[in-house]
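2024-03-11 09:14:02 DEBUG pipeline.ingest accepted 1 chain
2024-03-11 09:14:02 DEBUG pipeline.ingest length=386
2024-03-11 09:14:03 DEBUG pipeline.predict start
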Amino acid sequence: MGKKKSIKAEKKAAAPASRAAGRAVDPSIPPRSQAVGSPLALPTVYGCARLLQATAAQQEVTAVRGGQPWPLPSWLRRPELGTGQMRLRPMVIYAAASSALAGYAAWWATPMGDGWDLKPLAPRRVDAVFNQNHERVYYLDGQQVDYVFPASTQAWREAGLLIAGYFIDPERPLPLGPLQAARAGVAGWLDVEAYSANIFSSGRGTTGRYMSTEKDLPPETLEAYADVWMEKQADPLARMPALGGGLKIEDSMLDPETAQWLGNREFNAQEACRMYGIPPRYLGLPSGDASTYATARDNDAQLLRFATAPITDGIADAWSSLLPAGRNAEEDVEIKFSAGRMLAPTPLEENQSDQIAIAAGILTADEVRQRRSLGAAPAEKVTANA
């Protein structure tokens, strides 16, 4: 009992002044922050984030109960009816980008009728720390948040913070994303990009040509040769200058591959794909595997399973936590992301599959037509001479 009182007293003491004054946390006030170099300046990181956005947005958001389809809640089907003013597809895109770049997506959830009003939040506005009991304490714009989902929404109908995590690290208060896990490496990638982009504009390594010799020539002789060389170079009609004294022309310009650090940049691009679980071939990079023997649908299934699912599963779990729980698991309503349309077979593959099923006696022609919503087979034409 004494321990419970001490925890309760600690939380009461940590309550923000605005809460004590009767003012709720305003999720519309952005915090002050100092921008740093964005990882989106890296073409591969941008490509990975764009690909994850696209694959998440193309999936169908559905609801299931006990494994059976269930009507999607109206507050999620038409979220723009609340204060968030963001339709479902843009909300999925925003959440996918937040998870890919920051490691988590966040919303401010407010009760609205029988449902919820979801207002997307910039991840930088959310922070969390561990207290002395190793409990997570969340902050929004620097103010402590008392209520954070997921929790039993049957017993609570209070506005609070909703978070969808990419990767949960038990030793970190906030979810961890690929860019945060490889922060030092990403900073080095940005340095390489900046160096390779500025090497020509700065003039380093591009000073042109110079004359060299192994002989010990007097300074005035070197100057005379240099003057003749420059005069010949300045006159477009002059003949080619001839050098003596063992002088030869050296080129100090870096070749493009060395100047742009192409080897390092290609390695960094491969590393970014590995962080996100995206096969490099989706970004036009050499994959080094036997993917040529797999079908395009097999490759897409791999992309969805290992790259997109960690994002969409987190979003679905967060939204599901706002739905009331049933007496058992079969009565729970859950949100799911379905990629059935993305993995649909081609007409040729579907015809071949149906032919095999009919030949094996698994399906009849009428059952195939019914599944495809083609109606009954047309009656055979009877000619007048029959």
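2024-03-11 09:14:41 DEBUG pipeline.report The chain has three domains: 8-204+258-343, 209-251, 345-375.
2024-03-11 09:14:41 DEBUG pipeline.predict end
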